[in-house]
Amino acid sequence: MSELQSTQANAEIREASNMLARVRDEVSRAVVGQAEMIDGLLMGVLANGHVLLEGVPGLAKTLAVKTISAVIDSSFKRIQFTPDLLPADLVGNMVYRQQTGEFVPRKGPVFSNIVLADEINRAPAKVQSALLESMEERQVTIGDQTYGLPEPFFVLATQNPIEQEGTYPLPEAQLDRFIMKLTVNYPSAEEELSILRRIGVQQEVELKPVLFRPDIRRLKDIVSRISVDERIEEYIVALVTASRETSRGGHSFSRYIEFGASPRATIYLYRCAKVKALFEGRDYVVPEDVKSISRPVLRHRIVLSYEAEAEELTTDDVVNYLLSAVPVP
């Protein structure tokens, strides 16, 4: 790379960092803490993938999604998933127009830039499939016509891990459609005190958009040009393939894995590592970028064996074993 090209690349990275800083600052006016969740949501937008949020009620999952949609100037729809929800409630249906004697399409809430699928595991499988098909194909068929979804199109789904009664857990094949699964934890004591004081003074914060659709396209273009060394690419592939060596027993942790990660994991690790490098202000990926996003990208793609469950291991524990076993370039 010439000196001129290097200067231009550094200027682009600085520009992108400033954009992301403005987004974080505006989001922090409404959401206290939860920096990992906010960065994960932004990473999903820039990596062109969908995100699953898991956490107990009251951790600002819905608030964070609504805030992100307000800050990046996009259309937003919230869908509360319930057992009586129908696929047509998501994608739309054909409506008879009496004046003309014909059927016309009525588009559903999925035709938005950001769709919040609240408590996605409370709806039956046919409703989940309708949404996940839209996520994968980025199009919807109503009647005999197919309609493309708006760009950008980003689905954020939430689920509650502590209530299983009346829920329909997502199968592994459907979980694989999400670029990452973020575990939302409780705030620290200091953050909770800040929440208490803020809510006691002001109930709502008026947010303004600071990131527009041309900015999102610009950021995605910058991400696409972040360089990844061949050894980093080989490292990503080695991590994913190591999770599949259950039958050969190639690693000491293999007995804990029933099924390993799919090729989608390889693609998403690659994309997210590039976004992570941008977050860190670099135009190149380092191994730490890959390691830092391995848990959210892999935790919902690895199916644990009976032995792992007997030893009360989580998928994060197994991913930690995997990271320690695969040599870092």
Q: What sort of overall outline do the alpha carbons produce when their principal axes are compared?
A: globular
Mean pLDDT across all residues, rounded?
84
Share of residues in helices: 40-55%
Order of helices and strands: HHEHEHEEEHEEEHEHHHEHHEHH
Low-pLDDT stretches are: none
- Identify the CATH homologous superfamily of the largest domain: P-loop containing nucleotide triphosphate hydrolases
Report the end-to-end length measured between terminal Cα atoms. 23 Å
The structural class is: alpha/beta
Number of domains: 2
SS strand fraction: 5-15%
The CATH level-2 architecture of the largest domain is identified as 3-Layer(aba) Sandwich
Radius of gyration: 21 Å
Structure report:
With 329 residues, the chain is an alpha/beta fold. It folds into 2 domains: 3-213, 3-Layer(aba) Sandwich (Rossmann fold); 227-325, Magnesium chelatase subunit I, C-Terminal domain (Helicase, Ruva Protein, domain 3, Orthogonal Bundle), CATH 1.10.8.80. The protein is built from 13 helices and 11 strands. The strands form 4 sheets. A 5-stranded parallel sheet has the order 2-5-8-1-9. Strands 3-4 form a two-stranded antiparallel sheet. A two-stranded antiparallel sheet has the order 6-7. A hairpin with a 4-residue loop joins strand 3 and strand 4 (102-107). Helix 1 (3-28) packs across helix 8 (213-224) and helix 2 crosses helix 3. The chain starts with a helix and ends with a helix. The relative contact order is 0.14.
Describe, in short, the structure shown.
With 329 residues, this protein is of the alpha/beta class. It has 13 helices and eleven strands. Helix content is 47%, strand content 15%.
